[in-house]
Amino acid sequence: MVIGYIKQEKIESGFFQKILGIEIKKFDNNYIIAISNKNKIKILTKYIEKLNIDTLVFSKELDNSFKDEICLLLSKKKINVLNGKKLMQYMDFEIVKYILNKQNTTMKQEDIYIVFKKSQGLDLNFLKRFIQSFKTTNIVTNDIERLKNVQDNLLENDGILIAVSNNKKKALKRAKYIINVNLNKEELEKYVINRNSIIINLQENVKYDNPSFDGININYFNISCPDEYVEKFEQIGNLETDFDLVKLYESILLCSGMQKLKLEEVYERINKDDIKIIELIGNNGAISDEELQKNHEL
Questions:
Q1: Whole-model pTM?
Q2: From the centroid of its chain, how far is CA 252?
């Protein structure tokens, strides 16, 4: 894996860089690439191919401007664009814990609802922490056959009973905390959902906006890292203006061979790195403590 950290800035040094409008710096086994303006996109894509870069992290500015155009030009090359969602999936348990802490309640007092569609690449081991920690765990999925085996094993080996359903009208009607693993907006809206639910969208950014819905959509988060990581990331760009810390840390995990690790090993790595959630992001920006507390009182 070779990562390219792409940002836009004024190119001032070097004759060729001035002409090409591109500046490249080696960063570990990866590259930091600065582009002077949008007119240099085609040159940028040639360098991405030449350097065998297969994973991209865009700065905040490029993420909101011409990221899609760059990806379109690279459509023939398999490129992975980091968006922070993989880290969000690995920290799903911590996200729920953060919410409950702000609401002054505990997992043993609450029920959790986890909804997902059938996917061969989905490792169901992520369910363990929820099943072991919550009052009850309710699985809502169309992958009933696969979950039936999980359900039977838990009951036989641990004496734990989990509810498995895919009833569109009833399964989420009373749900207060919903983890939406991989449903898009259209798929999620087929369910009748409790009007005060907190929906945590792990893979897709979803704005569940049924007219009667008065709950909270969570689509992203912000984190804090130890100083050693902050210093490392500042070599790539300014953390206030250039790059998103979540995506930068996600790139570090990928470089460490995250894909080859078991889920428990990834959880241990994140915990060892002392990564903390400091803010949740909804459809209208940061979600305040007051908003979470008010939701719990409803």
A1: 0.92
A2: 14
